[in-house]
Design a protein that fits this description.
Strand order of the largest sheet: 9-10-11-7-12-13
Strand content: 15-25%
Radius of gyration: 20 Å
Shape: globular
CATH architecture of the largest domain: 3-Layer(aba) Sandwich
Number of strands: 13
Structural class: alpha/beta
Largest sheet: 6 strands, mixed
CATH class of the largest domain: Alpha Beta
Number of domains: 2
Helix content: 40-55%
CATH superfamily of the largest domain: P-loop containing nucleotide triphosphate hydrolases
């Protein structure tokens, strides 16, 4: 049945969306029927809504999204095998090419170097653990990779593209920077439907079903986002980041503050995503969890990348990851 909402009425039902619309003084017409959960009827209103939503979520880095399907692969050996398979499939990449690479990337705030001449190398299909204390520059580095912060110096290369060519790669890069943001009074499905509209995704219903099954939220589809647990909100954030057919997934501290079961759930999600060939860059303070999934590590200390090492090298050299991090951080 068709329901018509003026901006004032949407304020109560759709929270932040209606706030943005109301401030602009634009009434919206929405239909709810058996075919679609959220459809804007009037083309002019549709474009206005998208523009307003983009403005209201401008600071949310997780609007860049990706999609993946579940697979049976589990464990570090499966991830390593996925890396080898991905590298062998990437015939267009020259020998030594990387999915994510920077050349002396630098971000200055006055005389302070938040990121100081960082040259990072992330293999195709890898799960790369970016390790560093609070304030080490992890979030700033990720924001520059995503184009959310302009470098002071240096260069970013994604999928071996650079400069103006980065635009297309970033459109197919999923991310969560800091905390994922949602419209709390809208359902899980409605939040993902809005994300799908923002990125112009066709066949949104099927994609939404796929990502909800992957993150194990298929039974929460009609639940309000504001009522989800912290672990479920992180899972929903990853689902939103998996809506746009990605090559790269960038996650800033996605497991901090979660309970053990929620952490285990996120871990399994990332293993499945990587096994599909998606390159994952993840920052975390929980080294014991990174050890279970990461294929490679980068240690960031006071804005500088002081070491890169693979999980294979750590095992072969019998390196204690925590002890190595503390040694590098205090040297």
């Amino acid at each position: 049945m068709l329901e018509r909402y003026a901006a004032e009425e949407m304020q109560e039902k759709y929270g932040e969306i209606s706030s943005a619309v109301h401030e602009k003084g634009t009434p919206i017409i929405i239909t709810k029927d058996e075919k679609e959960d959220l459809v804007v009827l009037d083309p002019k209103r549709y474009n206005q809504l998208l523009k307003l939503l983009q403005e209201s979520t401008k600071k949310a880095a997780d609007t860049a999204n990706a999609v993946a399907a579940p697979v049976a692969a589990q464990g570090l050996l499966a991830v390593e095998e996925a890396v080898r398979r991905r590298e062998s499939m990437t015939t267009s990449a020259p020998k030594g090419g990387f999915a994510i690479e920077t050349d002396k990337l630098t971000k200055m705030y006055g005389s302070f170097a938040a990121v100081d001449a960082v040259s990072i190398h992330v293999r195709y299909g890898a799960i790369y653990g970016l390790v560093g204390k609070n304030g080490a520059g992890k979030t700033t580095l990720m924001r520059m990779l995503l184009g959310l912060s302009i470098p002071t110096d240096g260069e970013v290369m994604l999928m071996e593209r650079r400069g103006s060519d980065l635009y297309m790669v970033r459109r197919h890069t999923g991310s969560i920077i800091e905390n994922p943001t949602f419209y709390k009074d809208m359902s899980v499905y409605e939040n993902l439907a809005i994300r799908a509209q923002l990125i112009g995704l066709s066949s949104a219903k099927q994609k939404i079903r796929e990502v909800l099954e992957l993150v194990r939220l298929q039974d929460q589809v009609n639940k309000r986002a504001g009522s989800l647990s912290e672990g479920m909100r992180q899972a929903l954030g990853i689902a939103a980041a998996l809506l746009g057919d990605p090559e790269i997934l960038i996650l800033d501290e996605p497991i901090n503050g979660l309970d053990p079961q929620a952490i285990a759930n996120i871990r399994e999600i990332l293993i499945q995503v990587s096994a599909r060939g998606v390159t994952v860059l993840i920052s975390s303070h929980i080294l014991s969890e990174l050890e279970k999934i990461a294929t490679d590590y980068g240690f960031l200390v006071n804005g500088k990348l002081v070491k890169e090492i693979s999980a294979k090298e750590i095992v072969e050299q019998k390196i204690d990851l925590e002890a190595e991090f503390l040694r590098l951080a205090n040297q």
